Amino acid sequence: MVPKEQCPMALAAEILGDRWTLLILREAFYGVCRYDDMREDLKAPRSTLTDRLNSLVARGVLEKQPYQEAGDRVRQAYVLTEAGRGLALTFLALAQWGEAHVTGGAAPVGVVDRESGAPLRVGLMDADGAPVDPARAALRLRG
Q1: Cut 0.85: pTM above it
Q2: Low-confidence ranges of the chain (pLDDT < 70)
Q3: CA-closest candidate to residue 140, choices 51, 7, 5
Q4: Among 101, 88, 75, 82, which Cα is nearest to 30's?
Q5: How far apart are CA 66 and CA 19, in angstroms?
Q6: Distance between CA atoms of 32 and 97, rounded to whole angstroms?
Q7: Which of 35, 88, 90 is nearest to 57 (CA)?
Q8: pLDDT score for 6
Q9: Rounded distance, CA 123 to CA 97, Å?
Q10: Quick one: which of 11, 49, 19, 18 has its CA closest to 32?
Q11: Is the distance from CB of 29 to CB of 91 less than 8 angstroms?
Q12: What CATH number did the domain enclosing 48 receive?
C-alpha cells in the first residue's frame, strides 16, 4: 500500500476532490475566466468561489492575469497554468465517464475534433502510441 502522502491520486484528490473546484476548472476549460462570470454560471457562494480560486492559484493550477475594461478598475482573470491545462485529459475522461454512466449518453456536450467535428474518445496508449484496452491497465508500485 502506498502511503497517502506519496500516492499521486491521493495528492491530486487533495487539490481537485471538491465539487466546487471541479466546476471552477470546468468553467476555466470552457474559457470562463472572470470572477463575476464564474459566479453567475455556477451560482456559487462568494466566499466559496473566492476560497477555491485562491487555493487553485496557490497550488499552481490557475494564475491571475489583470484585465481592465474601459472606465473600470483593474480586475483579475483566472486562467489555467501549464499544470491546469495538464488536467485536460482528466476532465475529458471525466466527461466521457459521466456521459456513459450518468446521463445515459444524453449529455448536451461531447468531445469532438476541432476541425472535422468527429467525435473523440479519451483512451490509453502504450509507449509506441498503440491503443490499449483499459482492462489491461494496472497501477503498480515502482521499485
Answers
A1: yes
A2: 143
A3: 7
A4: 88
A5: 26
A6: 23
A7: 35
A8: 84
A9: 11
A10: 49
A11: yes
A12: 1.10.10.10
